[in-house]
User: Which sequence fits this backbone?
């Protein structure tokens, strides 16, 4: 037997990349790799990149530059680039960074083992195709190692919405849903390995329309089927588009016991003029009415969103409309960004807002969001919430978990184990987490 080779994966960006990195590690497990936590002793380094932020490609090139020394010391070290920057840059990566041996786009991960073998022959391997075959099906043969209590599960990939600022439709490609039965099999397998909470992932997850035995299934239908899996206790999904919030999904938030009361529903802007320029195909008003319906189904649901400030041509009045919308919704959580150009997207060509103005708007928006977030968290004090314990905390006997509303909760001296779900009385609210005392299991 030869010693296992070591694989170091650095993951950037979204939860889907986290999921993909796990799949890549498993696929390369079949080629004799085990994961390591540092690049220093790795036989292969993989950067799983994200293209959503500014100058993403430049950052990858400078990160690659840092591996020059390692590669010079150990010529056998293979360096690969995966993810959305790999898809967007393709061959250019090998031209600009000759130390790179392998470039693989998100739709080709199932081909990694043969690509790795090619690099061991001293060849370069590049694959940024959008192949027809189901990569997930090919990525699922793996040892059944035990898992922590929470897991991501990709159900849908790609996007057909073409928001004017976004690279996803170009890097992840057209919307594709995995067949329902394969998702259910993967979910059962995760539960057998210790998982109690599954977060369904997709760039446009609520547009899910995977094949079922009796025609296409909606996301709600899939959630109801997952709800029947014994041992699975919590279901979440992200990220949704307002236009795909179907009636059955809204209803499920009120009636499906395992579906958690948290919804990430990006709106991006509160100005109809800007929403139109963004090609969002919804208005501020339609979004607000939608949230009313969701809250009618599940009054305690915690809403979360994404916002872009300083989109081309955004005026102070447009920005104020966004602030008004935030006031009206009252978010429990939000992510906010200054608009930045992505080459190849329609908005990149338009008149840009002054950088100082963008920073000022972002600051004002984040101050408002922080107030709302804090208020939502503080409102938990005195309540009893269920907590799924994920790991031991920093102090002896302390455990850390997440409430149904996705708040981090610290509990001391509970005797609870990782994977337990216990009712917890919330005693105090800190900057980013709650603290409470565990009550006897109900
Ligand atoms: N500039 C700023 N933010 C962006 N996002 C996507 N593209 C851009 C861009 N060009 C944000 C959106 C999206 C989130 C994942 O990232 O808010 O919902
Ligand atoms: Fe990008 Fe989301 Fe718009 Fe699709 S819906 S283009 S992933 S921002």
Assistant:
């Amino acid at each position: 037997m030869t010693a296992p080779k070591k694989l170091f994966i650095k993951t950037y960006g979204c939860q889907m990349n986290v999921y993909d990195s796990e799949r890549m590690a498993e696929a390369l497990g079949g080629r004799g790799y085990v994961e390591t936590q540092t690049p220093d002793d790795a036989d292969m380094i993989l950067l799983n990149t994200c293209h959503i932020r500014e100058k993403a490609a430049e950052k990858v090139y400078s990160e690659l530059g840092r591996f020059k020394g390692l590669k010079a010391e150990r010529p056998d070290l293979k360096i690969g680039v995966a993810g959305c920057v790999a898809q967007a840059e393709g061959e250019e990566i090998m031209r600009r960074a000759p130390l790179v041996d392998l470039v693989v786009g998100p739709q080709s991960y199932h081909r990694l083992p043969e690509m790795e073998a090619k690099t061991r022959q001293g060849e370069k391997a590049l694959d940024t195709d959008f192949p027809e075959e189901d990569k997930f099906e090919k990525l699922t043969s793996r040892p059944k190692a035990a898992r922590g209590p929470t897991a991501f599960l990709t159900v849908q990939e790609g996007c057909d919405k073409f928001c004017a600022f976004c690279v996803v439709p170009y890097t992840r490609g057209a919307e594709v849903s995995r067949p329902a039965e394969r998702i259910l099999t993967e979910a059962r397998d995760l539960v057998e390995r210790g998982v109690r909470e599954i977060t369904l992932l997709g760039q446009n997850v609520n547009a899910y329309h995977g094949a079922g035995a009796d025609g296409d299934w909606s996301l709600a239908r899939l959630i109801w089927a997952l709800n029947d899996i014994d041992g699975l206790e919590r279901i979440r999904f992200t990220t949704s588009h307002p236009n795909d919030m179907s009636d059955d999904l809204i209803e499920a938030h009120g009636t499906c016991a395992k579906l958690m009361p948290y919804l990430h529903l990006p709106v991006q802007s509160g100005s109809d003029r800007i929403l139109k320029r963004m090609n969002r195909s919804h208005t501020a008003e339609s979004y607000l009415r939608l949230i009313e319906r969701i809250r009618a189904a599940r009054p305690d649901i915690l809403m979360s969103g994404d916002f872009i400030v300083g989109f081309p041509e955004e005026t102070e009045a447009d920005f104020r409309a966004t602030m008004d919308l935030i006031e009206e919704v009252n978010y429990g959580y939000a992510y906010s960004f200054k608009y930045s150009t992505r080459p190849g997207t329609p908005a990149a060509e338009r008149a840009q807002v002054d950088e100082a103005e963008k920073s000022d708007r972002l600051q004002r928006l984040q101050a408002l969001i922080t107030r709302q977030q804090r208020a939502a968290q503080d409102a938990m004090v005195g309540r009893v919430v269920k907590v799924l314990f994920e790991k031991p905390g920093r102090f002896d006997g302390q455990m850390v978990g997440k409430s149904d509303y996705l708040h981090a909760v610290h509990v001391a001296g509970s005797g609870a184990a990782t994977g337990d779900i216990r009712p917890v009385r919330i005693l105090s609210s800190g900057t980013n987490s709650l603290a409470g005392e565990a009550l006897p299991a109900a």
The chain has three domains: 5-127, 145-378, 384-438. The first strand starts at residue 5 and ends at 11. The chain has a mean pLDDT of 94.
